[in-house]
Design a protein that fits this description.
The chain is of the alpha+beta class. The chain has one domain: 4-Layer Sandwich (Deoxyribonuclease I, Chain A), CATH 3.60.10. It is about 25% helix and about 25% strand. It is built from 7 helices and 16 strands. The chain has helices spanning about 20-35, 60-65, 175-210, 225-235, 235-240, 280-285, 300-305; strands spanning about 1-10, 40-45, 75, 90-95, 100-105, 115, 125-130, 135-140, 150-155, 215-220, 250, 265, 270, 275-280, 285-290, 315-320. The strands form 4 sheets. The protein has a 6-stranded mixed β-sheet with strand order 3-4-2-1-16-15, covered by helices on one side. The protein has a 6-stranded mixed β-sheet with strand order 5-8-9-10-14-11. The protein has a two-stranded antiparallel ribbon with strand order 6-7. The chain is globular and about 60 Å long. The termini are close together.
């Protein structure tokens, strides 16, 4: 069984000044064919408006699925906060060759929106709520021989400063270091808070079944020793309690050589931002990993110099299991 995660980077059918859907499919289809996933976690899947339709639809995704032989896969997708349909951008989608028994999403179900009082900017002294940018998508999947996989698909916020009212000169430039620092602090609260909510959900699965097969896959926007990944791993080094060892979530990239562990290149620096973490019970079936980063380009250079690149600047991660 092959479980994979891949950030498609705003898959859409129309994008002002961006690549056409046809060009995107031409670039992405060979990657998806190589992934050869039984279960595929996708991030940044945009939804499209259609005449007479009350909610948005995944027409771009359906075109990609048709071109890559995935039309027979079961599909689960995240929704907006009201649950009436997908968001316009950056939806989570899980595709599975096996039946999906249950689909849920976590969006402040276990952790309340943090309150923050602005210290800088024109709203200094006023409170704001720091809601997560996106939900986490949970699916319970039926595997062969009556096994059950608990799969969490996520896309955490990037480590970019949140807006502070009246504190920026333009879209990118800040008026003061203090205001930028506050915005960056707010962003870290969001990332760490959502990681906490997901960790609570994982522990809930362990409470029901200590030997549960659990996988957490997606774009963490964090490297291994950054706070969100540390929270989700729950390593013994942090809890200092050997009795909790069975609840540690293990990054599968550990089985790869260190020089292969990167999914993004940013300003020449290789970073492992996309991960698959598995429970020890699932690790017992683990046979190896792949990171398809051979053709990966530097995202900073690409965004600045390449006109409408159809490629994703994230590499897919694949974990292989034997049941």
């Amino acid at each position: 069984m092959r479980i994979a995660t891949f950030n498609l980077e705003s898959l859409d059918d129309t994008k002002g000044g961006g690549p056409s859907l046809e060009a995107r499919i031409e670039a992405l289809a060979p990657q998806i064919a190589r992934i050869d996933a039984d279960i595929l976690c996708l991030q940044e899947v945009n939804a499209q408006k259609r005449k007479l339709a009350k909610t948005r639809v995944f027409s771009a995704l359906q075109a990609l699925m048709s071109a890559t032989g995935l039309t027979g896969y079961h599909l689960a997708a995240s929704t907006n906060r009201t649950g009436t349909g997908p968001r316009d951008i950056h939806n989570l989608v899980t595709l599975s060759r096996y039946a999906i028994e249950t689909t849920e999403q976590l969006w402040h179900e276990l952790v309340a929106e943090p309150r923050h009082e602005f210290a800088t900017g024109e709203d200094a002294g006023k409170e704001a709520m720091l809601a997560w940018d996106r939900p986490v998508l949970y699916t319970r999947i039926s595997l062969p021989d009556a096994a059950v996989l608990h799969l969490f698909n996520l896309h955490l916020r990037a480590p970019l400063a949140c807006p502070v009212p009246g504190a920026k000169a333009d879209q990118f430039a800040w008026n003061s270091v203090a205001a930028w620092a506050e915005g960056f602090y707010m962003s870290e609260i969001k990332r760490a808070g959502q990681a906490l909510e997901l960790r609570l959900a994982v522990d809930g699965v362990f409470d029901a079944d200590a030997d549960a097969l659990i996988a957490v896959a997606g774009d963490f926007n964090s490297e291994e020793h950054h706070t969100p990944v540390e929270i989700l791993r729950g390593s013994e080094d942090n809890t200092a309690n050997g009795a909790l060892a069975a609840r540690v979530m293990v990054p599968v990239e550990h089985s790869l050589a260190a020089d292969r562990r990167f999914t993004v290149i940013h300003q020449g620096r290789r970073q492992m931002l996309d991960h698959i973490l598995v429970s020890r019970a699932l690790l017992g079936h683990y046979r190896g990993s792949e990171i398809h980063n051979e053709a990966l380009a530097d995202e900073l250079v690409g965004y600045a110099s390449v006109d409408a690149s159809p490629a994703s600047y994230h590499a897919p991660v694949v974990a292989v299991f034997d049941f």
